Amino acid sequence: PNGDGTTALISWTGYDEAANGNDIAEYRVYTRPSLFTDISQATLRGTTRAGTKQFQLTGLNRNQQLFVAVAAMDRLGNINSTVAPLSFTPLDIVPPANIVNVRAEVSLNS
Question: Are 36 and 81 in contact (CB under 8 A)?
Fold first, then answer.
């Protein structure tokens, strides 16, 4: 993910809700700065409802690797806690804004 280095759009468009019981209630997005294999080892960053297969992560640290995983929860609250996270590093590729209102003062030395 490239941009200002503090956000990343995570998506899982290939996940087939119908093939997985067609009873998904929500998706939960978890992150951690190091590898994890169970959601209990990570921080829940947010949720999104069934049918929405993307999530905007915000407040990320620039140029620092992060692991992210998404877990589906069904209408009965069942969730598979074992995950295979993806790692990425948000890069800041946006240059600083142009400097404006530059002033010069000339002084006379006697």
Answer: no
pTM, entire model: 0.83
- Which residue type sits at 81? S
73 Cα distance to chain centroid: 19
Phi, psi values for residue 7, rounded to 5°: -135, 155
Closest to 32 (Cα-Cα) out of 65, 10, 63: 65
- Rounded Cα gap, residues 15 and 71, in angstroms: 11
pLDDT tens for each residue of 47-102? 999 999 999 999 999 999 999 999 999 999 999 999 999 999 998 888 888 999 99
Q: Work out the burial of residue 9: count CB atoms within 10 Å of its CB; fewer than 13 is exposed, 13-18 middle, 19 or more buried.
A: exposed
Phi, psi of 76 (to 5 degrees): -95, 0
